[in-house]
Amino acid sequence: xxxxxxxxxxxxxxxxxxxxxxxxxxxxxxxxxxxxxxxxxxxxxxxxxxxxxxxxxxxxxxxxxxxxxxxxxxxxxxxxxxxxxxxxxxxxxxxxxxxxxxxxxxxxxxxxxxxxxxxxxxxxxxxxxxxxxxxxxxxxxxxxxxxxxxxxxxx
Length: 155
Prior knowledge:
Blueprint: H1 20-29, H2 35-53, H3 57-68, E1 72-79, E2 82-89, H4 92-108, H5 115-127, H6 132-146
């Protein structure tokens, strides 16, 4: 028998925007426990984004995150000696986590100076529905569409 599920931890909202989503993003952005540095990187990136887009930085960030968040994913399932990629819907919390992680990972791979500039560039690209994180979402959806024939194997 499986153990009971752990309780969900309640996140405190961030100090500047008073938003829980920002705290969650910063927690994923943070490395080696340096949360203050992660907050500074995020806030600088939001300022750069508002300068580039001439819109509210936090709203652009939320729209960009919604643009890179996938709604379906493929999971491997072994049936009768063959491995099938089975498309399945994603839980809302996992959707957000995947979106956040893609945005952070692809911003780290960009060729700009400083993490805040990289993050700002990826947020603006995702807002305009371009960039590596958005392409990853499109690829995931395309793969799920291609393997739609195996959806009856869903578990």
